[in-house]
Inverse folding.
């Protein structure tokens, strides 16, 4: 292929697929740490992200129609090729704007022997999604995996996902979502972030909230099925439904989260209007800081998480250790449906309580009758329905 001339390739394995990526030497020569500078994108660190996407497809495919899927930003094509090889989907559209990426994807499709159930495109993602936006042509599942923010592409995805279908979104602009750059967060997501110890959870909630608001303009309702964050990205799996009333219902799950910097108390207020005057902490009277609008509903759909876990115990693909450990944590965490986890470091720092371990704090809170779990967001975190005041008392009892 003309586009691949001069590109040195190396064969690697991921899941049950062997495929070509730009040679590691080329990678080392060209970059600092950024894989974005590769002639064709490939990031081995995202393997567990792809593992989970495979597991999700297999899990929801048991109960829903998941036949036509699309990867509008495919890089070297590994994700879409894995969908074609490792799941029961019937047809995968793989696309990338970079001609070298599209050519390498074609090569990888041939290597995996899935030409009959795939099509490779070299278009702008929005152009591709637009081609498939008419009823009857839409996809059952779209996996959006861009550089940085997915926000500019969300609306095109909504057009191309069939009603009742699924959308997975990766956001790697975690600094923006976590409040390092407030202006960018307002611009991309129309929301105010907050740099707190639970900013990674707020990041997920801001992303879901922005998607819900955007989809509502088309009378579409989004339901989060599975969400998580790592140090480098945030990922959400959503199901999409048609209907103004349904869209109104999910919109009512948006609102603001208020955080008290003095006593760590949190308060949530549903609705899209910022209350005025500012909210005072109900526990210490201090002025609270707001984040939002963001999603205040559940981040996980228990049946989906359980189906994914069951699928994971059946499949023998890839390394899967990371995916397994994440699902185990989420399964416990989703039982405590309260926004905003605490971290033991911050509790000790702000409440001047003796330092303790998250496991010890979980045990003590459980003994005191509260709902509580560890969180996948951070090893230091504890999610609980105990108020900040109750937490302080339980912590005092631990000393
Ligand atoms: C993060 S990489 C995708 C990685 C891939 N999904 C995987 O799992 O390995 C983002 C890709 O989007 C492509 N891209 C960037 N802007 C695009 C656009 N407007 N339309 C289509 N592809 C685009 C880039 O060339 C790059 O290959
Ligand atoms: Zn307070």
């Amino acid at each position: 292929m003309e586009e691949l001339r001069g590109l040195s390739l190396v064969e690697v394995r991921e899941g049950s697929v062997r495929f070509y990526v730009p040679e590691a030497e080329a990678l080392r020569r060209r970059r600092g740490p950024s894989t974005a500078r590769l002639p064709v994108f490939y990031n081995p660190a995202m393997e567990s992200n792809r593992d989970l996407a495979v597991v999700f497809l297999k899990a929801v495919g048991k109960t829903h129609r998941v036949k036509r899927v699309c990867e509008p930003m495919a890089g070297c094509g590994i994700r879409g090729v894995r969908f074609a090889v490792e799941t029961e989907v019937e047809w995968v559209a793989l696309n990338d704007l970079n001609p070298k990426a599209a050519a390498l994807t074609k090569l990888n499709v041939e290597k995996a022997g899935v030409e009959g159930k795939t099509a490779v495109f070299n278009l702008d993602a929005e152009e591709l999604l637009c081609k498939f936006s008419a009823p009857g042509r839409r996809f059952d599942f779209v996996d959006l995996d861009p550089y940085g923010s997915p926000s500019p592409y969300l609306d095109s995805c909504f057009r191309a996902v069939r009603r009742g279908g699924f959308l997975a979104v990766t956001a790697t602009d975690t600094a923006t979502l976590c409040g390092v750059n407030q202006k960018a967060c307002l611009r991309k997501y129309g929301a105010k972030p907050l740099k707190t110890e639970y900013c990674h959870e707020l990041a997920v909630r801001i992303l879901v909230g922005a998607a819900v608001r955007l989809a509502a303009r088309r009378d579409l309702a989004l339901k989060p099925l599975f969400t998580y964050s790592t140090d480098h990205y945030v990922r959400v799996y959503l199901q999409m439904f048609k209907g103004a009333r349904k869209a109104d219902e999910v919109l009512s799950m948006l609102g603001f989260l208020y955080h008290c910097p003095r006593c760590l108390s949190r308060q949530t207020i549903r609705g899209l209007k910022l209350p005025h005057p500012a909210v005072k902490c109900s526990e210490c009277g201090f002025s609270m800081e707001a984040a939002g609008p963001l999603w205040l509903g559940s981040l996980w759909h228990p049946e989906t998480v359980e189906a994914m876990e069951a699928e994971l115990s059946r499949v023998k693909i890839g390394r899967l250790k990371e995916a397994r450990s994440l699902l185990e944590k989420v399964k416990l965490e989703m039982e405590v449906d309260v926004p905003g986890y605490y971290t033991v470091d911050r509790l000790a720092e702000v409440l001047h309580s003796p330092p303790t371990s998250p496991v010890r704090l979980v045990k003590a809170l459980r003994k005191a009758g509260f709902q509580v779990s560890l969180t996948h967001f951070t090893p230091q975190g504890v999610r609980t329905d105990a108020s900040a005041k109750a937490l302080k008392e339980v912590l005092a009892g631990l000393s």
